[in-house]
Amino acid sequence: MVRSCNFPGCPNKSTSGSKHFFHRFPNTNRSTRTRQLWLAAVGLNVHTNLRKIKQFRICSDHFDAKDYVPSITTGKKHVLKCSAVPHAWVVGPNTCTHASASTSSTTPQGSIAGVMDTTETLEAIMDPSPEEARKMFSGLVQSTPQCTPQNVGDSCLKLLLTSPESDHAVPRTRASSSGTYLALPPTWTQSQSTSSAVAPEILETSQSSVETPCEKDSTFHTPSSTCTPVETSFSDDGIHVAEHSSDWSERKWIVNETALMKLFATCHTCGKIIDDSERKTTYNGSMIKIEWTCIGGHSGAWQSCPDARGMPENNLLSSAAILFTGTTQTEITEWADLVNLQLPRKTAYYSLQSTYLIPVVYEAYTEMQEQIMSNLQEITCNGGHIDVGGDARSDSPGYSAKYTSYNFMDDTTKKIIKSELVQVSETTSSSAMEAEGFQRGLNGLLRRGVGIDVVTTDRHPSIRKIMRVQYPKLRHQYDPWHVAKGVKKKVAALSKKKCNRELQPWIKSISNHLWWSCSTCGGDERELKRRWTSVLFHVCGIHRWEDDGQEYKCYHDELSVDQQRRKKWLQKDSAAYDTLKAIVLDKRLLRDLDHMTLFRHTGALEVYHSSMLKYAEKRRHFKYVTMQARIQLSVIDHNHNVGRQHATTQAGKERVSVFHSKLSGEWRSRNLYEPTSQDFRNDLVQRVIQRRLDNNIKLGDDRFHIHPPVDLPANIARTPKPDKDTMILEHTTRFPVQNLIESTDNVSDTDTE
Question: What CA dihedral angle connects 579, 585, 590 and 593, to 10 degrees?
Answer without folding.
Answer: 70
